[in-house]
Amino acid sequence: MVLGTGVRQVSAAAEPTTVSLVGSTGSIGTQAVDVVTAEVGRYRVVALGAASSVGRLAEQARRLRPERVAIVDTSRAAELQELVPSGTEVLAGEGALEAISTAAEVVVNGVVGFAGLPVTLAALRAGRRLALANKESLIAGGPVVQAARATPGAEIIPVDSEHCAVHQCLRSVLGEIGMAALPHLPASPLRRVVLTASGGPFRGRGRPELAEVTVADALAHPTWSMGPKITIDSSTLMNKGLEVIEAHELFGVGYDDIDVVVHPQSVVHSMIETTDGATIAQLSMPDMRLPIGYALAYPARISTAFGAIDWSSLGRLDFEAPDREAFPCLGLAYRAGRSGGTAPACMNGANEVAVDAFLGGRIRWVDIPEVIAAALDDYVPIEPATVTDVLDADRSGRELAVAAVGRLAGAGR
Ligand code: MG
Questions:
Q1: Where are the chain's structural domains?
Q2: Ligand 1 centroid to 67 CA: how many Å?
Q3: How far is the CA of 236 from the centre of ligand 1 (A)?
Q4: Please, which residues bridge with residue 322 across strands?
Q5: Ion ligand 1 nearby residues (CB, 5 A)
Q6: Contact criterion met (CB below 8 Å) for 47 and 103
Q7: Low-confidence residues of the chain, pLDDT below 70?
Q8: Which CATH architecture has domain 17-159?
Q9: What is the DSSP string of 167-204?
Q10: Which one, of 280, 325, 36, lies nearest residue 174 by Cα?
Q11: pTM surpassing 0.90?
């Protein structure tokens, strides 16, 4: 049940919490399956969904026995129906993931990229808890997602490791009732949020050395194992830029009060600083199953320790300022965030095109920020009132980026 301020009453009964895993075959989805499997009897997966990975989806369905399985690619639906246990309902098509985003107490959105927006909106509008790994939907959808978040019962618990850390730190200052009021940040002694960045595979390299990096170089992340899109974003620091906007949207903190520090070990997942100069941090080994479990169990905790630290072997923790000249994507994200309205949606669309073009060998790694900057230069943001406004901004960002990719690729480099 939902109490006045959106605080959930935790049932004493041993009834399992129902979970819908959207994007279940990707990196977040498969790790969510790990968490659910480890916490025996605590969660029941009632729905699974993926874009097109039939084999893995069917294998998950045989193991977890959900009531419904969704696949976006309709051409694979018949094959999927053959492979899942009899009695499992198969949904297919563009709206299939949305359809499974309302039928559980907790909806895990592990969809990759802007395609996660309908899932985010459907879960929030249905008054569900959204365990949000898909940052792009919040960043691009900003004002529209915030309106859906005001639905009684709806709440976002971030699965992004940095925001999960900030959530844990802020909770120690605001309490759970204060957390339920977000993004309206209650009067608090918070001075600033400090997001940590691993720095990616190219930390310490200057602009000239970055001109010739390959796709394989960019995909070799030193601390986190993630999908290709986020790994490239991590190498450019766009991932951190997106996370700055994500922090602004989630916690209602102004851009002047969000800082980024490079921390190569990825053990301090982020921090908050209070007005008296104290810093509160959350530390654990880099393992996404901790934030996934945190989001599933909040305000309780899961009983499996996925990120426990062995202090006898941890060694040192280092911190340094990000190199904004070598990694211009971070500054571009602050710029888009401060512009507000649909500027982040445009930037996000342009980034997805630029990352695809780099992965496809059409542009160089150093061209990624050039493409995004070109898109932002030529775009006039508006205050979005509807999903259509967000979709239009995303499309504009993509079109402007495609044009910029064409110019750069045509320059014979
Ligand atoms: Mg992150």
A1: 17-159, 187-285, 340-410
A2: 31
A3: 13
A4: none
A5: 160-162
A6: yes
A7: 1-13, 225, 412-413
A8: 3-Layer(aba) Sandwich (3.40)
A9: HHHHHHHHHHHHHHTTTS--S-SEEEEEEEE---TTTT
A10: 280
A11: yes
